[in-house]
Amino acid sequence: MQRREFNQHLQRSAIALALAPWLRAVAAPADKPRVWRSNPFALGVASGRPRADSVVLWTRLLFGEEDRATGAEALRVKVEVFADAALKRRVQKTEIMTDDARGHSVHVHLQNLQPSTDYWYRFTQGDACSTVGHTRTAPALNADVRQLRIALSSCQHYEQGQFTAHAEIAKQALDFVLFMGDYIYESSNSQYAIRKHSGEEPKTLPQYRERYEQYKRDPMLQAAHAAHPWVLMWDDHEVVNDYANDMDRNYSDPQQFLLRRAAAYQAYFEHQPVLLGPDANNPANMHLYDQLSWGKLADVWTLDCRQYRSAQACRDPVRGGGRMVMQCDELNDPARTMLGATQERWLGDSLSQSKRQWKLVAQATQISPTNVPAPVGRSYWNEAWDGYPEARKRLLQTVVDAKLNNVVTLGGDVHCNVAANLRLEPNNPQSPIVASEFVTTSITSRGLGDKPAAVIRESNPDLLHYRSDERGFSLITVTPKEVRCDFRTTKFPAGVETGFKTQASYRVKSGKPGPQAV
Ligand code: FE
Ligand code: CA
Q1: 3-class state of residue 294 by DSSP
Q2: Does residue 19 belong to any structural domain of this protein?
Q3: CB 236 within 8 A of CB 10
Q4: b/e per residue, 230-242, with b = 16+ CB within 10 A?
Q5: In this structure, which ligand is nearest to the CA of 189?
Q6: Which residues contact residue 403 at a Cβ distance below 8 angstroms, ignoring those fewer than 6 apart?
Q7: Which ligand is nearest the CA of 384, by number?
Q8: Distance from the CA of 380 to the center of ligand 1, in angstroms?
Q9: Are the C-beta atoms of 81 and 110 separated by less than 8 Å?
Q10: Contact by Cβ (8 Å): 188, 160
């Protein structure tokens, strides 16, 4: 067997092993309480996927040098849930088994909870106890809700800044954090590094786990997870830059690439408070797109723009992925998709039927146009929705056909604060504004330079606000009357003690698509 083949074989076996436990109950181990020499809860705790009656709780046991797990050692983890911060009133207690096949991650689908209610939780294993996390359930489906507060965030390259934005997010009064992808970065760029990734570029499950461990050890990221439930979507860097479906930029053999993607998806699951892991029948697949409701006030969709998309149009034949493209007829091929047929149909159906006041469509990248004049015609960034104009038109046509007034899209990925009009025909003032877009800047990742950002801003009248120079997050406040966006920012690179200010604020009034400066 060639070394490469042998590695593939190992990966396949690892994935098969990883999935087997989902199909069976794990046998109970001997009951002697374990004595830990280092803190097994060093990666913190998290909660996510808030519903009126449930949330998902997460942690992952980490073994220090002196605590090495022996093979697939199964461990019993105790979970306690309280109705008060002082941990006096315990409302649930449960135990759950974990083992090495899932990286000793723990996912608890906590059910039978009360709507719009705060809960505190902690995990215990042997003589070790986790920090206490706080979470909160969604309102009842028929509740009149006065306000929904979200911290919209994305793109946290560990090397390119401190996670100060997360310390700031932890302090806010929020219903949930909406994180739209690039939670880890697989790649490095030493030019902009103020701290270093450990290990090389991850390609295997152990390597992806190591990368998540480094990120999750960050105390400010841990604070934001412990403070609020998170609603999560991935983008490309959770696997590799600019991948599309089964294709990476090097045009690797798709079967090979899907093994890498399966390892990355498995590691993603092991480190996030999400409900479902990779598909047992096909570990390279994982159903992450989702929809949640916030009383009568809002429906929120989180869309997967990576797993099912068509490859970028007019790619460089040697180095694929994102680039600016001109005179590219492929852009207009109606068969090209951003969401894949199944997700697109699901979104179209549930969006059309939504009766809630606001429809918040969260997706990983930017929908509004960023194309610029070129020697011939215009030049389009083929990675975002500008590279999928037919899919964008179908999405916005759904909004028009269903006569939806209050659609606001929320995005990330571009390391830029954006407030924009969404028209059926982008940048055409004759074409009506049918929806509104807010895109948040990155937590840390470097943005476009000032000059290209200025050219993009001046070339696209649909962009009301477009700034790539600062880092941070966006506070989204939803009331029956309006959706308000406050771009909360700090300088680049983000340091530990830098302060935050409001770069700009916009609002969308009910019944009137298009953001207005506040
Ligand atoms: Fe990014
Ligand atoms: Ca990205």
Answers
A1: strand
A2: no
A3: no
A4: bbbbbbbbbbbbb
A5: 1
A6: none
A7: 2
A8: 18
A9: yes
A10: no
Q: How far is the CA of 20 from the centre of ligand 1 (A)?
A: 33
Which ligand is nearest the CA of 237, by number? 2
| Residue 395 lies inside a defined structural domain of this protein | yes
For residue 443, the ligand closest to its alpha carbon is: 1
238 alpha carbon to ligand 2 midpoint, in Å? Answer: 9
Distance 412 CA to ligand 2 centre (A): 8
Q: Compute the C-alpha angle 444/500/458, nearest 5°.
A: 70
Ligand 2 centroid from CA 445, angstroms: 10
- Quote the ligand 1 centre to 241 CA distance (angstroms): 9
Same domain, 416 and 300: yes
Contact 456, 481 (CB under 8 A): no
Ligand closest to CA 156: 1
Residue 423 lies in a domain: yes
Rounded to the nearest angstrom, the distance between the alpha carbon of 169 and the centre of ligand 2 is 21
C-alpha of 314 from chain center: 27
Distance 21 CA to ligand 2 centre (A): 32
| Per-residue tens of pLDDT for the chain, all 518 residues | 344 443 444 344 444 434 333 333 344 455 678 999 999 999 999 999 999 999 999 999 999 988 987 767 899 999 999 999 999 999 999 999 999 999 999 999 999 999 999 999 999 999 999 999 999 999 999 999 999 999 999 999 999 999 999 999 999 999 999 999 999 999 999 899 999 999 999 999 999 999 999 999 999 999 999 999 999 999 999 999 999 999 999 999 999 999 999 999 999 999 999 999 999 999 999 999 999 999 999 999 999 999 999 999 999 999 999 999 999 999 999 999 999 999 999 999 999 999 999 999 999 999 999 999 999 999 999 999 999 999 999 999 999 999 999 999 999 999 999 999 999 999 999 999 999 999 999 999 999 999 999 999 999 999 999 999 999 999 999 999 999 999 999 999 999 988 999 999 999 999 999 999 99
Q: Is residue 11 part of a domain?
A: no
Amino acid at 388: Y
**Ligand 1 center to 446 CA (angstroms):** 8
Domain boundary among 136, 157, 181: 136
Are 153 and 106 part of one and the same domain? no
What ligand has the least distance to the C-alpha of 240? 2
Question: What is the whole-number distance in angstroms between the Cα of residue 463 and the centre of ligand 2?
Answer: 20
What is the pTM (predicted TM-score) of this model?
0.94
Q: How far does the chain reach from its first CA to its final CA, in angstroms?
A: 65
Domain, as residue range, for 83 = 33-136
Q: Which ligand is nearest to the CA of 235?
A: 2
Q: Are residues 472 and 338 in the same domain?
A: yes
Same domain, 263 and 332: yes
- The answer to whether the beta carbons of residues 364 and 181 sit under 8 Å apart is yes
Tell me how far the alpha carbon of residue 441 lies from the centroid of ligand 1, in angstroms. 9
Domain count, the chain: 2
Q: Of the ligands numbered here, which is closest to the C-alpha atom of 236?
A: 2
Are residues 270 and 18 in contact, defined by beta-carbon separation less than 8 angstroms? no
**Distance between Cα 157 and ligand 1 center (Å):** 7
Domain harbouring 111, CATH code: 2.60.40.380
170 and 125 inside one domain: no
CA of 462 to the centre of ligand 2 (A): 22
